[in-house]
């Protein structure tokens, strides 16, 4: 039988504290998987086939009506598919042989910049829409198994359980 008092770590080991709203934390404020706690990641919902184009590495700019802050995002596919977009040659070539999963987190990405093109200047990407805010995406990682989830039009905060299911598939990920 262990003689260590309840709630204390055995000699020479660090105690872990558990919270009810996140994964177990070390005393340094990071999760056991090495991920930081708090507000470091958001969800972004993207219609198909555009999400598939992001995962394929072709679409590095996502258009939004408002500014987003740089940082990590879960790539979530909304429940709707933009069917007319499937006839656009650029998209058709990009998504060839890809399944159009909807209503799930399908990957992660890092927003490295958010800008609008200067008026009259050429677009920063063939994917950029005039007048929109352009979220520049990098470090895209696709999940092997989509994680069903509800998204939102605006940036949304993922639950700890959702993050756990996503990052179980990305054990080497470090923000």
Q: Which key terms come to mind for this protein?
A:
single chain; 3 helices; 5 strands; 29% strand; globular
* Parts with pLDDT < 50 across at least 5 consecutive residues: 1-30
Q: Report, as a whole number of angstroms, the end-to-end distance.
A: 40 Å
Secondary structure category: alpha+beta
The average pLDDT is 84
Helix/strand order: EHEEHEEH
What is the CA-atom radius of gyration, in angstroms?
20 Å
- Which term fits the overall shape? globular
The portion of residues forming beta strands comes to: 25-35%
Number of DSSP helical runs: 3
Q: In order across it, which strands form the biggest sheet?
A: 1-3-4-5-2
The percent range for helix content is 10-25%
- Count of β-strands: 5
Please characterize this protein's 3D structure:
The protein is an alpha+beta fold. The protein has helices at about 50-55, 90-95, 160-165, and strands at about 40-50, 60-65, 70-80, 105-115, 135-150. About 10% of the residues lie in helices and about 30% in strands. Strands 1-3-4-5-2 form a five-stranded mixed sheet.
Could you outline the blueprint of secondary structure elements for this entry?
Blueprint (H helix, E strand, L loop, with lengths): L40 E8 L1 H6 L5 E4 L6 E11 L7 H7 L8 E12 L17 E16 L11 H8 L8
